[in-house]
What we know:
It is built from 15 helices and 12 strands. With 356 residues, it is of the alpha/beta class. The mean pLDDT is 96.
Amino acid sequence: MRLGAYQILYMGGVPAYAAVSEAVDQAKAVAGSKPAGFVNAVLRKVADAGDGPERFPVESEDPGAFLAQLGSHPRWLVDRWLARWDRADVKRLIAANNRRSSVYLNPLDVLPQEAVERLSEVGLDASTVTEAPGSVRLGEGVRPSDALGVIPRAIVQDPAAALVSRYADVPSGTIVADLCAAPGGKLLALSDRPAKSLAADRSESRIRMVAQNAQRTGQAVDLVIADALHPPFSEVDVVLLDVPCTGTGTLARHPDARWRLRPEAINELATLQAHLIETGASIVAPGGLLIYSTCSLEPEENEERINAFLRARPDFALEATDAVPSHFLDERGRLFVTPQESGFDGAFAARMRKTT
């Protein structure tokens, strides 16, 4: 596609139809007819649109359009972020979303430095992560399956997700229920703290993922196929609620998601999240904890959702923890990890105690 675009825009002597035809033939030979059709459609658009600096927005005149085109992000999403952060922050966020994501391990029974040494002994490159205690970054080209063969009691997990589990600060000897459990990373990252771990997910195939990860890490987890809106548990000490969300904190890991996301999905998901947090709260025992989390950056799914819940439920209160570095906490003690600041995925979590 790049060769075709170069021929169309800059070679002059190559007719556009010939450049398109040649690129389509090459794409078909390499990848088949479906991708070839995509190449055809894109290059015809390129031929019609032409090129030139006048086609690119001027940053000082229209920063939203400039950043959207510069970083290949939907304009509506860039405008949302510009309403909350300054232009430099949004530019850094977009750059973070366009970088190749690193792969991380969260070792469950050895310290990160020991994990790095074990991997090094078999020729696998890895390093500790200063900003996220407990995580190990795998080197370029190291396959997670090879690393897990050396350290089986570990999970593949971005540091942002690992920080959510640390932030939960689950007391030892408690009963913990994860209502949206698959693939199980946040629950398994609690390691041996719970006396009993309960995992629910409405998808049978996804529950199998939890079972496989639990078996590999040697952790006992009771599994059930169930909708989080109708939890099959009652009076548990800790409820983990990693709700479905827009995932705007994970666009580097899922680059196509930015184009599939619809603006109205934010409020639609916020409505679902409001129902989920109510059902999750209904099964927390007196004195127990409710841990709400997302991988979204949007306030409707994060701060606003928690503020609305706490207004409606005076029997719950935010409870701070020092289990994670303080720079990942907001002024009310909630976890907020952003890609532009951390280099990790984005994550939000609120730790709430049922007071009565």
